[in-house]
Write a structure and sequence with these properties.
Organism: Gemmobacter lanyuensis
Strand content: 5-15%
CATH topology of the largest domain: 2-enoyl-CoA Hydratase, Chain A, domain 1
Number of helices: 26
Number of strands: 19
CATH superfamily of the largest domain: 2-enoyl-CoA Hydratase, Chain A, domain 1
Radius of gyration: 28 Å
GO biological process, one term: fatty acid beta-oxidation
Number of domains: 3
Distance between the termini: 36 Å
Subunit structure: Monomer.
Bound molecules: (S)-3-Hydroxyhexanoyl-CoA
Subcellular location: Peroxisome
Pathway: Lipid metabolism; fatty acid beta-oxidation
């Protein structure tokens, strides 16, 4: 296959890139672009060049799979410079995404036009690196420093309309992209050409601007280094000559590319892309999902229904009586109202979301649904009763799923008519926001049912992870170990606030005790009490002592910490010290890094046990679970990655 082809529209050459799946800048593509620039410079019949891509997208960036290998010529900065130095103007015609090196190639072109659905961006910081082919140097020259700071330090792409406002592109076109780009090129030739990006001046902000940005970015980055290094590149671009800024950017890029953070973020990048289509299900066909239902309209059920509606699926919401139906619909309405408030949905879109929901108590409404997700109270008898009704009301080939977080799905499934169509789908709260979906087959679950779980995850934009059956599956089992290990440190005399600070220092938004205070200590307590009532031996936890004393977390004004009303700031608690007093050893100091290393090591140890038991299929599934369900810092790669020595 030829990756780069050239054809003509009279005096305009059209260079087409075709390097599926995403036109990543492999060595062959870089060489192809270089050769095209040389050939077209030498062709007197050509007055301008349109650069366009085949397939789903414009060039989506450097080929990330080449990052671990020695760089090969021609290097991308040279290719971009060659296009920029061309004797005729190049016009990038963008559809899909022009990302990273792809946008840098577009910046080497004299003009950028895009269709309405396109976006452009420099997402390198999300891979632990900075742009390496002039992104930090040309963007401020083309669109100004403020736009460049936004684009480069957040890594978030800008949609075409916004990109136009920011000055990142020159035009948004509505018709056929190639035709429009060729017309744009002809019109441009009638005007004086703008300067090449490299030759443009930058208006440099004062030192105060950079100091302010540094504070904001450091706070957001929580230990991630690339965003601040990217800011330093932008400052150099604003204050130093072009060539010096290019050299600075390249050195930063090469340094970061070899860093642990970049290795971690690359591993997560590929794990996330592999997760929705696991190799072991390559031959399993998923079932069609047209009509869906959710049983239970509480926080979880409403969240799941919202996620289904966001993916455009119609939902029947079942509750046990009319008042509960009304409450469930109200929960859903308030989720969409929140999305409107945050600017994620328009009023019209929110109304359309609600129109696709039917609230009812009547299981007969489920006769035609393809998938039902049960999200009722965590009580085996209640759940079994629901599944008995579902078995009677649904088609035998409908997929019946439970959202249980700690009951045994095999016990819930007892008595369903078609056990092959039963599966666990464990969402995380808020279910319309959290990316993780644990997919839990029973021994009877048919491969196509399992494949349907993954297909659902794809359509909801979730990160699916297959988990085997054990208490807590993957995520909650590791959470339990993490909390128990943190409590063990407290018993050994380490201060609660020190442990939380250590985990924040590691990159978590919250430490284990602050997180429990936010979520409530009573849920896990009730679970333990349930197990005790069932005759299991469950040792007393420090959390039990606090809950028994009425300290369930922020909602009761105190848990592991005290809170003053209206303030979420945790204050070390004399009451807690007193309540736990004789259970704790004498206070001792422990280095924060050592605390974090110990607790992450404990998570990984549980992860290894989970792998050995076949509960998780591969270490990266454990890492994705922790990153997308439990706030593990992405740039650490997850507990398994973080504790695996790299050569
Ligand atoms: C960079 O450019 C550095 C430069 O500044 C400096 C250079 C000197 N490389 O996501 P999808 C694969 S850093 C290799 O499911 P979508 C992906 O693994 C780069 N492979 O598609 C998957 O493979 P498979 C900056 C890549 O339509 C397949 O393509 N760029 C790359 O949902 C489809 O991916 C980025 O960070 C890559 N760069 O979304 C862009 N990208 O089929 C990252 C994708 O075997 N990419 N693959 O499983 C994306 O954001 C999305 O892929 C995109 C398409 C939005 C483009």
């Amino acid at each position: 296959m030829t990756i780069v082809t050239i054809d003509r529209d009279q005096d305009i050459a059209v260079v087409t890139v075709n390097n599926p799946p995403v036109n990543a800048l492999s060595q062959a593509l870089r060489q192809g672009l270089w050769d095209a620039a040389v050939a077209l410079d030498a062709d007197p019949a050509v007055r301008a060049v349109v650069l366009i891509c085949a397939g789903r997208t414009f060039i989506a960036g450097a080929d990330v799979s080449e990052f671990g290998k020695p760089p090969m010529e021609p290097h991308l900065p040279d290719v971009v410079a060659r296009i920029e130095a061309a004797t005729k103007p190049w016009i990038a015609a963008i559809h899909g995404s022009a990302l990273g090196g792809g946008f840098e190639v577009a910046l080497g072109c004299r003009f950028r036009v895009a269709d309405e659905a396109a976006s452009v961006g420099l997402p390198e910081v999300t891979l632990g690196i900075v742009p390496g082919a002039g992104g930090t140097v040309r963007t401020p020259r083309v669109a100004g420093v403020a736009a460049a700071v936004e684009l480069v330090t957040t890594g978030k792409p800008a949609k075409a309309a916004r990109a136009l406002t920011l000055g990142l592109i020159d035009a948004v076109v509505t018709g056929d992209l190639r035709t429009e780009a060729v017309a744009f090129a002809r019109a441009a030739l009638d005007q004086p050409l703008p300067a090449k990006a490299a030759d443009r001046a930058v208006e440099a902000p004062d030192a105060g601007f950079w100091a302010e940005q540094e504070t904001v970015i450091a706070k957001r980055a929580k230990g991630e280094v690339a965003p601040l290094r990217a800011l330093a590149c932008l400052r150099k671009a604003a204050e130093a000559p072009f060539a010096e800024a290019m050299a600075f950017e390249r050195a930063t890029f090469l340094d970061l590319r070899a860093s642990d953070q970049a290795a971690a973020l690359r591993a997560v990048f590929f794990a996330e892309r592999a997760a929705p289509r696991p190799a072991h299900l390559a031959d399993a066909k998923s079932l069609p999902l047209r009509q869906t239902a959710v049983v239970g309209g509480g926080t979880m059920g409403a969240g799941i229904a919202a996620a289904l509606r966001d993916a455009g699926l119609p939902v029947v919401l079942i509750e046990r009586d009319d008042a509960a139906v009304a409450r469930g619909l109200e929960n859903l309405r308030s989720i969409f109202a929140g999305a409107v408030k945050r600017g994620r949905l328009t009023e019209t879109q929110a109304a359309a979301r609600m129109e696709g929901v039917t609230g009812t108590t009547d299981y007969a409404a489920l006769a035609e649904v393809d998938l039902v997700i049960e999200a009722v109270f965590e009580d085996i008898a209640v759940k079994r009763a629901v599944f008995a009704q579902l078995s009677a009301a649904c088609r035998p080939d409908a997929v019946l799923a439970t959202n249980t977080s700690y009951l045994d799905p095999r016990l819930i499934a007892e008595g369903v008519v078609n056990p092959g169509r039963f599966i666990g789908l464990h969402f995380f709260s808020p279910a319309n926001v959290m990316k993780l979906l644990e997919i839990v087959p029973t021994p009877d679950t048919a491969p196509e049912t399992l494949a349907t779980g993954f297909a659902l995850a794809r359509s909801l934009g979730k990160v699916p992870v297959q988990a085997g059956i054990c208490e807590g599956f993957i995520g909650n089992r590791i959470l339990k170990r993490y909390r128990a290990s943190a409590e063990a440190l407290v018993r050994s005399g380490v201060a609660i606030a020190e442990i939380d600070a250590a985990m924040r220092g590691y990159g978590f938004a919250m430490g284990p005790f602050e997180a429990q205070d936010l979520g409530g200590l009573d849920i896990a307590f009730l679970q333990r009490e349930g197990a005790r009532a069932a005759g299991q031996e469950v040792a007393e936890t420090l959390g039990d002592v606090l809950v028994r004393a009425g300290r369930k977390g922020q909602k009761t004004g105190g848990g592991w910490y005290d809170y003053t009303p209206g303030d979420r700031k945790p204050q070390p608690s004399a009451t807690v010290a007193e309540l736990l007093g004789d259970r704790l050893a004498a206070p001792r100091q422990m280095d924060r890094a050592a605390i974090a290393e110990h607790l992450v090591g404990e998570m990984a140890a549980e992860g290894h046990a989970i792998l050995a038991e076949g509960i998780a299929r591969q270490p990266s599934d454990i890492d994705l679970t922790e990153i997308h369900g439990y706030g593990f810092p992405r740039w650490r790669g997850g507990p398994m990655f973080a504790t695996t020595p790299r050569g």
